[in-house]
Amino acid sequence: MKIGFIGTGNMGTILIESFIESNAADPSQITITNRTIDKALKIKERCSSLHVTEDQERLVRENEMIFICVKPLDIYPLLKKLTPHLREDHILISITSPIQTEQIEHTVPCQTARVIPSITNRALAGVSLVTFGESCSDTAKTQIRTLMSHISKPLEIESGITRAASDIVSCGPAFMSYLIQRFIDAAVEETSISKQEAVIMSKEMLVGLGKLLETELYTLPALQEKVCVKGGVTGEGLKALESGVQDMFNRVFQNTHAKYEEDISLVEKQFHV
C-alpha cells in the first residue's frame, strides 16, 4: 500500500521513521510533504528511498492511505483543498485528538479514521489510540490495525474518552518524564549522588520497571506492597508522596480537558458539525 504523510512535525516524523524501522511499510512506498519542505528533505537524508513532494494534491492522488499530521486548526482548510482529489477508496487518517471522525466524514468523500500515536511508538512499543469513522470498511480497519500493530498496541476507543486516553497514552510520557526529572533533581540536591549517577540509575530503574510490568507478575498496587517493608524506608518515602501528590493528577486532567474543550470549540466553528 502506498502511504502519504502531510506534515512532518514531531509525531508525523515518529510515525514515518517507526513504520520504516519496523518494516511496516517499504520506504519506497511512502511519500511525505511539509509546509516547510526542508523538514521533509531532512527525513529523506536519513532514508533516501522515500519520496518527497511539495505538491499536496499530487500526494493525495498517488497514494491510498493519507496521514494528516498538522495542527487542529489547519486541518479543515487543508481538507477543503484536498477534497476534489480524494476518492471513495482513499483512507484518510487524522492524528489530532480534537478532530472527530464524524467531522472529517462530513467534509471528505472517503474513508476516515483517527489514530493518536505516542512517542513510545518510536521504540515500537506502547499504545496507539484508534477511532474508526462509519465510512471505514472492514478491509480498511484491518489495514490500519495491521500497520499500527507493527509499532504499537492499537487500542480502539470511543470518542467520549479521547482526552483521558490521550492524556495517559500520548501525554503520559511527558508527565512521567517531568516527575522523574524532579526525582533526579531532588536526589542531587539532598544527597551526595552526582546527577550523572542519578540519571543512569533512574533510567535503568524505569526500563526494569517496564519489563517487570510486562511480565504481569505484579499489579501496580502489588508492586508497591512487595517493595514497601513495614516500618521501612520505602514506606516513609510513600508517606511524603501521599502528602505531596494529593489532587495533583486530578488537576492534570482538569487542565488538559479545559484546553481540549477550548480546541474543540474552535474546531467546531470551522466544521459546523
Automatic annotation (TrEMBL):
Chain sites annotated for binding NADP(+): I6, G7, T8, G9, N10, M11
E.C. code: 1.5.1.2
Origin: domain of life: Bacteria
Catalytic activity, reaction form: L-proline + NAD(+) = (S)-1-pyrroline-5-carboxylate + NADH + 2 H(+); L-proline + NADP(+) = (S)-1-pyrroline-5-carboxylate + NADPH + 2 H(+)
InterPro entries: 6-PGluconate_DH-like_C_sf, NAD(P)-bd_dom_sf, P5C_Rdtase_cat_N, P5CR-like_CS, P5CR_dimer, Pyrroline-COOH_reductase
PROSITE patterns: P5CR (PS00521)
GO MF annotations in UniProt: pyrroline-5-carboxylate reductase activity
Pfam families membership: F420_oxidored (PF03807), P5CR_dimer (PF14748)
Keywords carried by this UniProt record: Amino-acid biosynthesis, Cytoplasm, NADP, Oxidoreductase, Proline biosynthesis
Xref: SUPFAM superfamilies: 6-phosphogluconate dehydrogenase C-terminal domain-like, NAD(P)-binding Rossmann-fold domains
Domain Pyrroline-5-carboxylate reductase dimerisation: 163-262
GO cellular component: cytoplasm
Pathway: Amino-acid biosynthesis; L-proline biosynthesis; L-proline from L-glutamate 5-semialdehyde: step 1/1
NCBIfam families on file: PRK07680.1
Function: Catalyzes the reduction of 1-pyrroline-5-carboxylate (PCA) to L-proline.
Protein family membership: Belongs to the pyrroline-5-carboxylate reductase family.
Name this polypeptide is given: Pyrroline-5-carboxylate reductase
Organism encoding this protein: Bacillus nakamurai
